[in-house]
Amino acid sequence: MKITDRKKEIFKTSGGKYIAPQVMENKFKESRFIEQIMVIGEGQKMAGAFIQPDFLFLKGWCERKKISYTSDAEIVKNETVIARFEKEMVALNTDFSNYEQIKKFELIGAAWSIDNGELTPTLKLKRKNILARNQELFNKIYS
Questions:
Q1: What does DSSP assign to residue 100?
Q2: Which tens digits make up the pLDDT trace of 64-117?
Q3: CATH code at 11-141
Q4: I need a labelling partner for 46 at 20 to 30 A (CA). Which of 13, 24, 30, 40 fits?
Q5: Distance (Å, rounded) from C-alpha 60 to C-alpha 82?
Q6: Phi and psi at residue 134, in whole multiples of 5°?
Q7: DSSP conformational letter for 71
Q8: In this structure, what are the phi and psi dihedrals at residue 85, rounded to the nearest 5 degrees?
Q9: CA-to-CA distance for 39 and 47, rounded, in angstroms?
Q10: CB neighbours of 29 closer than 8 A, spacing ≥ 6?
């Protein structure tokens, strides 16, 4: 028998610190703005994240703030929305050590799904698939 994925959920930064992403992800998902989050940063100098917003809640927030949009992909590029997520990240980061805190993140404009191969049938993240599909955002975070 060979384990091919999720053998180890802990990763090590380039500074030698270990980060347990699932613990962080569960905390960040307490936010009403965040539907899914994937903490990244193995071998990098800091932790980052891909965030899939809770589009239902976010659209309601945008209507209250009079932010116009035509698609989910457009919402995640809006400066006001990004600023609101930055504020949310600052508040949620207080529960973690400095080396564990999410320093940079990118919002994902499409929902992760089982059909797209990004989630397992039990709704766990398929980290390799998500990372492969979002390689350019990964490069943007760590460039």
A1: G
A2: 999 999 999 999 999 999 999 999 999 999 999 999 999 999 999 999 999 999
A3: 3.30.300.30
A4: 30
A5: 16
A6: -120, 35
A7: S
A8: -70, -35
A9: 7
A10: 35, 36, 37
